[in-house]
Design goal:
single chain, 352 residues, alpha/beta, four-stranded antiparallel sheet
């Protein structure tokens, strides 16, 4: 009988991305901005992992470090069995076709001096032997896949709308038949009426081509629509990682609860009875994060241990990981219960 368990395509362990702070005429090293500070997660083949959090929490930095657009400070990123963090430039170039990125701003990510055919065909020229009519046929095929008219192949990016430009970026990402795509807020710069079209296109391509996504966004409603699991980030660390339905039904981390309380409810009756959680204070500087839990300065339930001991990201119930010393009881509505094993794991986290 074949093994039905999903295969891990991406494995991230203790990923850190620190940017140095220099001062003085001699540019001495005075500290670090800890944009990503010890992030670990897996992405299974064929799934979409949503990565959410407020602006400046490190979401986009995680995505760029995964594809080695940034050189990570430490940690490992294994994609399809290969730790790309330790590869030389020659070996990295060889596996680039497996992993691609769709950028946030389609206006800034497309070369204004290149035609659509040249933009989509550039990866083909760099990584394949396709030339002439064979390359043009592949370009037309990619344009068909993302819903662009072939007659527009010789137009420049300025002639397209924002949604069409994002389709060009998606076509470019698909050119080399990747297995893993980082979508870095691909709908943030688009009109609301166009956002659904782009998300539906991404879902359709995933079903047809078997793609795996890391979908970075601050739009919690859209993440609920597209993601299978969701990781909530705060100040460079993951606060909670849970299946989508369980997270939205019963968020366990105090920050996740506050974040999801801000999502509008379409039903006016339910909206009027909802309680918004307003967090006090400001987000600490990533150059000087708190000693214990990075959320302790704003958490309404913080205890003395929270200011001294950093809680590890622990699996409190199958599939649900939370970085908190005081995980609330998991209700039946969330699909599972914590049980004694989860309680024991929580106590172990406090001891650490």
């Amino acid at each position: 009988m074949p093994d039905a368990s999903p295969r891990k395509l991406v494995e991230v362990r203790n990923l850190k991305m620190h940017f140095p702070i220099t001062s003085g005429i001699l540019r001495r090293h005075a500290g670090d901005v800890k944009a990503v500070d010890g992030v670990s997660f897996d992405i299974f083949e064929g799934e979409t992992l949503g990565l959410v959090g407020e602006s400046g929490c490190g979401k986009s930095t995680v995505g760029r470090a995964l594809l080695r657009l940034y050189e990570a400070t430490s940690g490992s990123v294994v994609i399809d069995g290969v730790d790309i963090a330790r590869l030389g430039q020659k070996e990295l170039r060889r596996i680039r076709p497996k992993m691609q990125m769709v950028f946030q701003d389609p206006q800034a990510s497309l070369n204004p001096r290149m035609t659509v055919a040249a933009i989509i065909g550039e990866p083909l020229a760099e990584h394949t032997g396709l030339r002439g009519n064979a390359r043009l046929a592949r370009i037309h095929e990619l344009m068909d896949q993302v819903g662009l008219n072939r007659a527009f192949a010789n137009r420049f990016p300025h002639a397209f709308s924002g949604g069409q430009r994002q389709r060009i970026g998606i076509a470019r990402a698909l050119a080399l038949n990747p297995r893993f795509i980082v979508c870095d807020e691909p709908i943030a710069a688009l009109d609301v009426s166009i956002q659904a079209q782009v998300v539906n296109l991404l879902e359709d391509l995933q079903d047809r081509l078997g793609l795996t996504y890391l979908f970075i966004s601050h739009d919690l409603s859209m993440v609920r629509h597209i993601a299978d699991r969701v990781a909530v980030m705060y100040l460079g660390q993951i606060a909670e990682l849970s299946p989508r339905d369980a997270l939205y039904a019963n968020p366990l981390h105090p920050y996740a609860r506050a974040l999801l309380s801000a999502v509008p409810e379409p039903d006016p009756t339910l909206e009027s009875s909802r309680r918004r959680i307003i967090l006090a204070g400001d987000v600490p500087s990533p150059a000087n994060p708190p000693k214990g839990c990075n959320f302790c300065t704003r958490c309404p339930q913080a205890q003395p241990v929270c200011h001294d001991v950093k809680p590890p990201l622990l699996e409190v119930t199958p599939g649900r990981h939370v970085a908190c010393h005081f995980v609330p009881p998991i209700t039946a509505a969330a699909g599972s219960t914590g049980g004694p094993e989860a309680s024991e794991r929580n106590r172990q986290g406090e001891d650490r």
